C-alpha cells in the first residue's frame, strides 16, 4: 500500500493558492501575501518561503516555467503549479474544510497558567488583551470596508471574516472573564481551601430537564 503523501503546510497551501492565478516568482509571492495580509494566518519568513518552494518543486507540485531579470537585480525564477500540485491542493482543501484538525493556540495555555500570577496582575494582562483585540477588530473593519468598496467576491476574503468573528467572540468572552474576576463571581484560588465552582457567566448554561420541570 503506497504511503500517504505528506500534508501540505499552511505556507505550501498559500503558495499554491497564489499559483492558481498565474505563474510568479518567490519575491512576488512574499509581496502578495503581505499585501493581502496572508501573513496574519500563515507564518511568513523569506527563508521559510524559499524552503517551501523548493519542497513543492521536489514533490512535483510546482515547476519552473521562466526566469526574469530586471536591470542589475538577481535573476528571478518563475514557478507554475503542476496538475499534481492542483490535485494535492484540492484534496487537502476538501479535507481541511470537512474535518476539524487539532490546533494549539497560545491563549488557552496562558489561561491555564494565569492562576499562578497575582490576581490583579492577571486581570491587568487580560485588560491589555481586551485593548489589543479591540484594535485588531477595528483594523479588520477597515480592511473589510476596503474589499467591499472594491466589490471583491466574499469568498475571496472569507478567511478574514472568519478571523474577525473569532476575535469578536474572544473579545466578548475575555471582557466577561475580567468582569467575573473583578466582581468575585470567579474567586481567585485560595491556598487554604479548594475554590468553589459557581455558575459562571462566561459559560453558556442551558436549563436542565429538572429546571424545566420545576
TrEMBL record:
Biased composition (Acidic residues): 204-214
Pfam families assigned to the protein according to its UniProt record, in alphabetical order: PadR (PF03551)
SUPFAM superfamilies the record matches: Winged helix' DNA-binding domain (SSF46785)
Every Transcription regulator PadR N-terminal domain range: 15-89
Domain of life according to the entry: Bacteria
InterPro entries found in the cross-reference section: Tscrpt_reg_PadR_N (IPR005149), WH-like_DNA-bd_sf (IPR036388), WH_DNA-bd_sf (IPR036390)
Location of region: Disordered: 185-214
Protein name: Helix-turn-helix transcriptional regulator
Protein's organism: Amycolatopsis rhizosphaerae
